Amino acid sequence: MNYILSLLTFLTMSTPTTTAETHTITLSPLPYAYNALEPEISAETLRFHHDKHHAGYVAKLNTLIAGTPYEKMSLEDIITKSDGAIFNNAAQVWNHTFYFDTLSPTPKSAPEGKLLDAINKAYGSVDNLKREMNEAAVNLFGSGWVWLIENKDGKLSIMSGKDADTPLRYGMYPLITIDVWEHAYYIDYRNARAEAVKAIWNRIDWKKVEERYNKHQQ
Ligand code: FE2
């Protein structure tokens, strides 16, 4: 009996627990080659954007959360429970992964089905939606992100978020984002944000956007 108890104690102690483990936030790899989004986005821009800026937010976040309760949380939990520098870096990590994942070397060029119906209902047409998002991107003063989001009631809307702001913070479902920080376009377009924003639509993969939308429409 004592032997069995000892064995059980040994096994319990030697089994790693996942509940109180600390972990580091990892950098998601770029889901395509650096030159895969040319000519709209150059390889040089992607190298800086992913390997320097995105990676920089990941490194900074890991430094900031070391030794704090955030070290045991998922990235999403950190975003909803933090503020200040930890929120800024965590949200930038999440936003960039979402942004890179929205773009594709072989994008579906137009939405269909339920998503198309929802866009037509809210904006009249896909072209109108693009126009309104482009306008929001050009008018966003300073750095930030422009989002197409699905509200809790299922309706679509456009959100302009300053700096690192993200719809996750408000319990909304993001469908598309456009990064309007200068680091996203300055190498290729210099100060012409309007041109950069217009070009990005050639790389937005509507298949991904449909999948995100349909997930909440069951
Ligand atoms: Fe960025």
Task: Write structural notes for this entry.
This protein is 50% helix and 10% strand. The chain is mainly alpha-helical. The radius of gyration is 21 Å and the shape is globular. The protein is built from 9 helices and 3 strands; from the N terminus they run H-H-H-H-H-H-E-E-E-H-H-H. The chain has a 3-stranded antiparallel beta sheet with strand order 2-1-3. The N terminus is likely disordered. A hairpin with a 5-residue loop joins strand 1 and strand 2. Fe (ii) ion binds next to helix 2.
Give a quick rundown of the structure:
By secondary structure, the chain is mainly α.
**What compounds sit in this structure?**
fe (ii) ion
Largest sheet, described in full?
A: 3 strands, antiparallel
Stretches with pLDDT under 50, minimum 5 residues: 1-20
Distance, first to last CA: 53 Å
Strand order of the largest sheet: 2-1-3
Strand content: 5-15%
Q: Quick check: average pLDDT?
A: 91
Order of helices and strands: HHHHHHEEEHHH
CA-based gyration radius: 21 Å
> What is the helical fraction, as a range of percent?
40-55%
Could you say which overall geometry the principal axes of the C-alpha atoms support? Answer: globular
Oligomer: single chain
**Strand segment tally:** 3
What is the number of helical segments per DSSP (H or I, 4+ residues)?
9
By secondary-structure content and strand pairing, the structural class works out as mainly alpha
